[in-house]
Amino acid sequence: MRIVFMGTPDFAVPTLQALVNAGQDVVGVFTQPDRPAGRGKNLKPSPVKVVAEELGLPIFQPETIKTAEWIQKLKDLAPESIVVVAYGQILSRDILQLPIKGCINVHASLLPTYRGAAPIHWAIIKGETLTGVTTMLMDEGLDTGDMLLKRELVITNQATTGEIHDQLAVLGADLLIETLQELEMGRLDPIPQRGESNYAPLLKREHERLDWSRRASELHNQVRGLNPWPGAYAVFRGENLKIWRSTFLLQSDKATASGMDPSKAMSGQPGEIIQVLEDGLLVQTGEGVLRVLEVQPAGKRAMPARDFFNGRHGQIGEKFD
User: Fold this and answer.
1) Taking the model in full, what pTM does it have?
2) Cα distance between residue 133 and residue 198, in whole Å
3) Which of 114, 162, 171, 319 is the most exposed place for a label (fewest CB within 10 A)?
4) pLDDT tens digit string along 107-117?
């Protein structure tokens, strides 16, 4: 099948590689323009561009794909299908209607749940135990097109966004190849999205700060949902401190089994450091105790939370803001 591929970040790379490995005729790769990155602000190509160059594929990088010039370029490429994976631009109706087999999107959630730009982050932040990928025929709505195939993935209670991202990227690539094969055989009937939906918006700075009045389980989900980017943070002695790894305790009997002094369980104020253990700091929350395992001070490397605390000559009873 003649395919134009549109994608930009790491998540899209396995799908592009799978298309080539499967013998599909990738006649063009559209990705975002090179952007300034790093301290030197040198232009950096997208992960998709890097791989497309290695594969020897034609690469196109429009600032906006909706102009008459780029629509004509797509017509000249004459794709039977356009495959879109986290491209970063909205496709116009003219583009959506161009390929005879439609525009197929690989989305990192079990639609209709978690439509939007950050489905993996929000699934973990919200404490979901199940996620997955969906292939769908794109329409003009935001992730509202008819669904083709789905695959599920379990989210464990310690899984981070980075870990689930990598697993879903591979799962999505496999699912896309299966979707194309089934479409070519005429064995797929698109299914309209029905049922409860929600939105997974882009993350903002306000989503990163830990509110210690919340439940320990919610803070733990926030920590792992923002790992490896952008990172949850708290404030200690006026200094912003990234918190990368944690776990949580809800009952004093569990705390006792984990080495915590039961007399101190649930006894502090939200944000108060109530005990230092071999592997971390125990911090009181609005409900339960968060065990902070790994932190990163501004301008420093990530380190065990106990090492940070001891290095600052921290005292029991001090608080995170």
Assistant:
1) 0.94
2) 16
3) 162
4) 999 999 999 99
